[in-house]
């Protein structure tokens, strides 16, 4: 069963290069579905599937005015994903610092014992 929490949906959406390219285009401003799909060498249904994944992750919203469907990027889910990555990096750096400190302490203690023993 695939995960359905926001963070999992965002990372799954970002895993595909076409979806990342769509987000890059929408970062410049809202666009119609046709404008988004035009540069890609794929069918309209394929683009529609990518947009559904992005919408499900909350990264894209769609508004309708008359016959035009406009897509806009939503930065909130990206901000939360970025905050998660930053927190993981902070925690890993703390663990690596603690390991480095421990190894340095072991090395220093080993050298001290050798000097005292000789």
From TrEMBL:
GO MF, any single term: DNA-binding transcription factor activity
Domain (HTH arsR-type): residue spans on this chain: 1-93
A Pfam family hit: HTH_20
Entry-linked SUPFAM superfamilies: Winged helix' DNA-binding domain
Superkingdom of this protein's organism: Bacteria
CDD domains reported for this sequence: HTH_ARSR (cd00090)
Protein name in the entry: Winged helix-turn-helix transcriptional regulator
Native species: Agromyces archimandritae
């Amino acid at each position: 069963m695939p995960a359905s929490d926001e963070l999992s949906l965002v990372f799954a959406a970002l895993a595909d290069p076409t979806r990342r390219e769509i987000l890059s285009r929408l970062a410049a401003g809202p666009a119609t579905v046709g404008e988004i799909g035009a540069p890609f060498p794929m069918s309209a249904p394929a683009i529609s599937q990518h947009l559904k994944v992005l919408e499900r992750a909350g990264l894209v919203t769609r508004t309708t005015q008359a016959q035009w469907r406009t897509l806009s990027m939503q930065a909130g889910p990206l901000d939360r994903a970025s905050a998660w990555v930053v927190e993981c990096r902070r925690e890993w750096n703390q663990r690596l610092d603690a390991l480095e400190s421990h190894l340095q302490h072991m090395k220093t203690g080993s050298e001290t014992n050798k000097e005292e023993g000789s």
